[in-house]
Amino acid sequence: MSDNKPDSVTDSRSGGENARRILRRDPNPHLFRPIRFRSVEARNKIMLSPMCQYSGQDGLSNDWHFVHLGARAAGGAGWVFTEAVHIEPRGRITPHCLGLWNNEQRDRLARIAEFVAAQGAVPGIQLGHAGRKASVGRPWEGSRPLQVNEGGWNNLISASALPYASQWHVPEAMSTGQIAESQAALKASTRRAREAGFKALELHGAHGYLIHQFLSPLSNLREDAYGGIFENRIRFLLESIAVVREEWPDDLPLFLRLSCTDWVDGGWSLEDTVQLAILLKSQGDVDLIDCSSGGNDPRQQIPIHPGYQIPLAQEVRAKAEIATGAVGLIHSPDLAEAVIANGQADLVILGRALLSDPAWPLRAAASLKAENAEWPKQYERSNIF
In whole angstroms, how far apart are CA 177 and each of 99, 264, 324, 342? Predict the structure, then answer.
């Protein structure tokens, strides 16, 4: 894992081993030292969390997404990830979520990836499938299940024929043929993500979406090779990772977002996540675990407070010896710096903080007295600091 020594650039291809690249002592705070995964080096350890904007049409990104992601790249983030981009129409969370099942969608996203890279950030994309949590309204419209006459759809699929909650759509339990079709769609979307110019890819296995639905015994009641014991419930994820790696180049990093616990007795647990992470580390295809939690069962009891998920990232990193990202109400530069400096995670993944302030990384650099962060030339004369 990353040792974050002051005279090093972190290289996390194998969980964060040190790459002795800088010979002099690095005067910058740990948060603002470069980090490398495979061939991709980012200027700092700040990642824009994938956050749905619910602003697309027919799966297509538009100027809102261009400005939203471009602003965070110009604002100094090291890694700028798209929201969840879905591999087929019925896999969208809402009718306004993004997709990557055709080339027009790819070409729209390529414009964004190019601009993000031009601002010095690593352009990343998250691929996912909502499974039984698809066909709902946007948050400001109530996040309720939509009927067909409201723009929704009723051909939902999942590990088992269990709705997320009462009054939600009942999905169809996926046949082995449908599993194969889903993997093929994931593979095609991965190819398009590569063609669009993204340099990092995150597979969404958290928050109660399709992969998580297979992982958790609360949502997976199957009795075949994809259900029951731990080794069967992780099969769909392992096969998904394998098909992604068939299209995603070996020199580009692959992240995986997991809900490290369901926060429900009898559900997916932190111990399960550690066991899975140890296996993934041994296989070598996944470079970082993005450690989130919850989202698969409305009975969850989440102890929300600033930094509440940091211990999840720390536990997975320590026990599986794989790189992790910490996410969850991390707002202050001092807290973000402490996470990295204390070896609790390799990346700090910010959501609300970057929504409220696209230039949070540059302001944090000033607060922490980093010497290697520069405002865009267009803004330098404003003498903000």
Answer: 22, 31, 33, 46
pLDDT tens per residue, range 320-366: 999 999 999 999 999 999 999 999 999 999 999 999 999 999 999 99
**Residue 325, domain member (yes or no):** yes
Q: Catalytic residue numbers?
A: 209
Task: Identify whether 28 is part of a domain.
Answer: no
Q: Are 156 and 132 in contact (CB under 8 A)?
A: yes
Residue 84 bridge partners (DSSP): 126
C-alpha 76, offset from chain centre: 19
How far apart are alpha carbons 170 and 167 in whole angstroms? 9
Distance spanning both ends of the chain, measured CA to CA:
35
What residues make up the domain containing 270? 44-371
CB 214 within 8 A of CB 139: no
Question: Of all helices (H) and strands (E), which one includes residue 356?
Answer: helix 352-356
Longest dimension (CA), the chain: 65
Instruction: Output the six-digit token pair for 30.
Output: 């740990």
**What pTM did the predictor assign?**
0.92
CATH code, domain with 62: 3.20.20.70
